[in-house]
Amino acid sequence: MLTHDSARRRLRPVLLLLGAAWFVLGALVSPAAADTPAAWEQPPDVSPLGFLMVLLILPLGCAAVITLLVVLPSLASDKGYEPGQSWRGDTEWFGGPTKGVKGADDVTPDQIEQSSQGAGGISGRW
């Protein structure tokens, strides 16, 4: 039977191992904070305007252009369908007869039966 003290004794080596791993990882990361070598060229200083241009003005400008490209076509055309009005668009029947909805009256039940022979996925019959 495990008691509180025995569980604590078993947990202590795991915590020590995790602490040692954390210390080793921290020691490996510290060289990343090194300065640029003296033999390298020093990069030019960035002006505040260049900083703002790259981090604010260009992203906001791109977002504004994309927004305008999305919104302008809807502003240029009519309002489209509005609730309470009758539908003014042409009817569509996706997957229906090639002549459209009006061509559905020309199809006989025999033609429908013949077109469904061998239909269905993975050799299924519907």
Tell me what you see in this structure.
This protein has helices at residues 4-29, 48-76, 109-115. It is built from three helices and no strands. With 126 residues, the protein is mainly α. The two termini are 64 Å apart. The longest helix has 29 residues, at 48-76.
Q: What labels describe this entry?
A:
0% strand, 3 helices, mainly alpha
SSE arrangement:
Blueprint: H1 4-29, H2 48-76, H3 109-115
Concise account of the structure shown:
Helix content is 49%, strand content 0%.
Write the H/E string, N to C. Answer: HHH
Distance between the termini: 64 Å
Number of strands: 0
What Rg do the Cα atoms give? 36 Å
Strand content: under 5%
Given the structure, what is the number of helices?
3
